[in-house]
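We modelled the chain as a single entity of 205 amino acids. Its sequence is:
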Amino acid sequence: MKLQGMRIIHHFSTLLALFSAISIPAQAIADLEPHLGQLTFTTGHKFGETLYQIGGAYSTNIGPGFQPFPTSELRFPLTLPTATIAFIQPIREKYTFAIRLETSYTTHSGLVKDSDWLTNPSVPDIYSESRSYGSFKEGGIEFNMRISKFRLPGELKLGCELDYMHYAYEIFDLAQTSNLPKYYTGVVSGAVGRYQVSYFIPYLQ
């Protein structure tokens, strides 16, 4: 799969990447509640996939160009068990600060799927599946401010969060099919390659 300077489109669930910087008043920091906040440890399991697609407008040393979108697609599995440690600290009665660290603790991750459309936009000309070992790490910081409280149960909060996610994959035992004679059809045993996928996601909540 060749990138060659083409535009890379990231798809990850339905997160809306928005961010608004909210400063914490100095008095609020000075008035930290006397307790040390809440420290939690949890385990979980991630399911699904993260998707990379390339195509559209691109630029090379000989000039700009355009290809249909997508011309190539990679699907990375997210089937990994995870462990998370989080710390939540109230600041006075109005603000909350939290930090979270999450990591996978096994490496088996499922199939990486690679599709390329070179001549037919509806059917891939080249398709492959590879087994993979994957790992996942995520960190996040969060700040919330309560802006009103109702007589009914519940409250209204405004907050912002910044997440960093990193996936690493080692792929092996590739099986590829191609309807174009110049491209390989068959099986490649053993190690094939490595991929790393990273996201920075700021958003409002």
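As a brief sanity check on the tokenised model: Confidence is low (pLDDT under 50) at residues 1-26. The longest strand covers residues 126-149.
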